[in-house]
């Protein structure tokens, strides 16, 4: 635990020095101003959901991929992996730090849009789940391409499929049950139901279970790919 906290501290410092935290805060402030301008809009909850799913997801997927690519190009990874640092600590610390940043940005947008009128626990688990899934997807992708342009071009369609397909059912564009089984659906369900006062317990349980299942599965896939293609390559 001590090593994990130390790594998280360094990750925060590195992200701050690379202006990633300041960029995230600036984008959140812009979204907050937009929400203030749209105050009273009938579909505010749906606009909020759309932005909450995409903004933290972009922070997680792009920033974690770019930081690994930068460290690889600067020969930091080679030096890091000959130290006693546990590889789980390396991966988890990055995922947690970017997820905390994404969650904080999502929380700021929600407070600007609808005030404190939501279930904090369901909202936090949902946004944190989206951030972690996006970070893991970004890490998995970067295991197969360490070229900046290739990573960017491949991450866009991956982000669209992972995050936005379940939104089609939410916006009633489609009614495809398969989308409800996708990795991000559990987090989407928790976020949207955090606005409601009356929610079925079974719906919440499915949201929590689905989020935990996909994060666990994604992490196992990422760890094996990371060890095979980056650490032991």
Structure, described:
This protein is mostly helical and 233 residues long. The protein is 79% helix and 0% strand. It has nine helices and no strands. Helix 2 packs parallel to helix 5 and helix 6 (120-142) packs parallel to helix 9 (201-231). The radius of gyration is 18 Å and the shape is globular.
Jot down its keywords.
mainly alpha, 9 helices, 233 residues, globular
Map the helices and strands.
Blueprint: H1 2-17, H2 20-37, H3 44-73, H4 76-80, H5 87-114, H6 120-142, H7 148-170, H8 185-193, H9 201-231
Largest sheet features: none
Rounded mean pLDDT score = 87
Tell the overall outline.
globular
Ends: how far apart? 28 Å
Q: Gyration radius, to the nearest Å? A: 18 Å
Count the E strands: 0
Proportion of beta-strand residues:
under 5%
Uncertain segments of ≥5 residues (pLDDT<50)? none
Helix share of residues? Answer: over 70%
């Amino acid at each position: 635990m001590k090593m994990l906290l130390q790594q998280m501290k360094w990750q925060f410092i590195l992200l701050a020095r690379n202006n990633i935290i300041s960029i995230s805060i600036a984008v959140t402030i812009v979204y907050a101003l937009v929400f203030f301008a749209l105050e009273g809009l009938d579909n505010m909850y749906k606009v909020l959901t759309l932005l909450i799913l995409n903004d933290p997801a972009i922070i997680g997927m792009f920033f974690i991929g770019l930081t690994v690519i930068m460290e690889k190009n600067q020969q930091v990874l080679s030096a890091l992996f000959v130290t006693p640092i546990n590889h789980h600590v390396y991966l988890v610390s990055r995922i947690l730090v970017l997820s905390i940043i994404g969650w904080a940005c999502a929380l700021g947008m929600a407070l600007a849009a609808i005030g404190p009128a939501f279930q904090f626990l369901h909202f936090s688990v949902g946004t944190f789940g989206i951030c972690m899934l996006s970070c893991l997807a970004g890490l998995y992708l970067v295991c197969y391409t360490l070229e900046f342009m290739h990573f960017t071009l491949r991450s866009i369609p991956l982000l669209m499929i992972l995050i936005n397909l379940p939104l089609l059912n939410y916006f009633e564009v489609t009614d495809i049950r398969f989308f409800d089984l996708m990795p991000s659906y559990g987090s989407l369900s928790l976020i949207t139901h955090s606005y409601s006062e009356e929610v079925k317990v079974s719906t919440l349980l499915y949201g929590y279970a689905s989020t935990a299942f996909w994060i666990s599965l994604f992490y196992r896939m990422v760890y094996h790919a990371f060890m095979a293609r980056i650490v032991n390559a």
